[in-house]
Amino acid sequence: MTALPEPSDAELLEAVGSSSVDPSEKSRAQAMFYARHVRYLYGVLHKQQSKLLALAGIGAEDLVQETFHRAFERAHTFRAADVDDPEHLRRRTRAWLGRVAQHLLADHLERFREVSASPY
Asked: Are 46 and 39 within 8 A, CB to CB?
């Protein structure tokens, strides 16, 4: 018996971002995508933990969760650019996740700066 090929990251994000996909399929795609990339993203962000906490008041665990939440909200923005090589697609996907995390961190820093500048 031959195993079915795993869906690519692009296919998973397409399922997550599509309004026509059954909610259970969408949930399954989110879980599979999360399982593929959570350790990588956590590892990258954990290395920056002291900086993240000091500058924005957020920990790596929280930023990872927020990153996946925002990535799933904006899954429709991911572009695979006709990449066929699975390794290249994995790197492209992780770069996209990194940009999502950077934007969230920038949002936290902006909020932190607004609060610290407040006269109250």
From this structure: no
